[in-house]
Design a protein that fits this description.
By secondary structure, the protein is an alpha/beta fold. The protein has helices at about 15-20, 25-30, 60-70, 90, 130-145, and strands at about 35, 45-50, 55, 75-80, 95-105. The protein has a single domain (about 10-145), classed as Zn peptidases (Aminopeptidase, 3-Layer(aba) Sandwich). Strands 1, 2, 3, 4 and 5 form a five-stranded mixed sheet that branches. Helix 3 crosses helix 5 (about 130-145). It is globular and about 40 Å long. It starts with 12 loop residues before the first helix and ends with a helix.
Length: about 150
């Protein structure tokens, strides 16, 4: 299943509504949720070990990292205590989750530096999207699926 949610920044409204309105049986059939956050907004591909409200499933994280290693892609592993993401409502149900995002890592030690974040800023325009990062994430996800 592929899904997209809105109103993340104002309380995960879209993903919380989806989880609340979906039948528990349908959601329990999910073997995992991989959330993609701001892909292409920076050069570094990152798997989030945890964000506010959710810890990523270690097996899912290692599977994604393994897929990246097979392809020779550098993928960072970070924890963030200053943002949450749309996979949180799924994690709260006990579904295995992981978050993949992209940014420029030197700008994010301890939180985002002002005026350097492409996503959610006036720089968030098609010209700022990094095709190389999109390609890496796509290749890693395809490898991950093939490995399943």
């Amino acid at each position: 299943m592929f899904a997209s949610f809105d109103l993340e920044e104002v309380g995960l409204c879209g993903s919380r509504h989806f989880v609340a309105s979906s039948a528990a049986k349908e959601l329990r059939a999910l073997t995992g949720v991989i959330a993609l956050e701001c892909i292409g907004s920076g050069r570094d591909v990152v798997i989030c070990k945890e964000v506010v409200g959710a810890k990523s499933d270690p097996v899912l994280v290692e599977s994604l990292l393994c897929a990246g290693r097979k392809l020779g892609h550098r993928i960072l592993l970070e924890s963030f205590d200053w943002f949450n993401a749309d996979h949180v409502p799924f994690s709260e149900l006990g579904i295995s989750t992981a978050e993949v995002c992209s940014f420029n890592s030197e700008n994010y030690k301890g939180g985002p530096a002002p005026n350097v974040n492409v996503a959610h800023s006036n720089l968030d325009v098609p010209e700022s999207v990094r095709p190389d990062t999109l390609k890496i994430v796509g290749e890693v996800l395809l490898q991950f699926l093939n490995d399943l």
